[in-house]
UniProtKB/TrEMBL annotation:
Species of provenance: Candidatus Kaiserbacteria bacterium RIFCSPHIGHO2_01_FULL_54_36
InterPro entries noted in UniProt: HicB-like, TA_system_antitoxin, TTHA1013/TTHA0281-like
One Pfam family per UniProt: HicB_lk_antitox
Boundaries of every HicB-like antitoxin of toxin-antitoxin system domain copy: 8-76
Name the record gives this protein: HicB-like antitoxin of toxin-antitoxin system domain-containing protein
PANTHER family linked to this entry: ANTITOXIN HICB
Length: 82
């Protein structure tokens, strides 16, 4: 029996060197980077799988997920001129 698919929101930024940086807020410490968006999506799936495997094997990490994770309902960016 296959496990149910889970959905995670990711926050993506582009750094000064042109790399895409992804953070998965629901999984503390779960982040990755890549030169292209295509590569980033692949890396995100891999790092989420690693973090979920770690949560099964490590009770301390499971506690961190319960205590420190958050699932944003909205993430935005805007410009303000002052």
């Amino acid at each position: 029996m296959k496990a149910a698919k889970r959905q995670f929101k990711i926050v993506i930024e582009r750094d000064e060197d042109g790399y895409f940086i992804a953070d998965i807020p629901a999984l503390p410490g779960c982040h990755t980077q890549a030169k292209t968006m295509e590569e980033l999506k692949k890396n995100v799936r891999e790092v989420i799988a690693l973090c979920l495997a770690e949560s099964k094997a490590n009770p301390a990490y499971r506690r961190q997920i319960r205590e420190f994770s958050y699932e944003p309902s909205f993430v935005g960016i805007d410009t303000v001129i002052v």
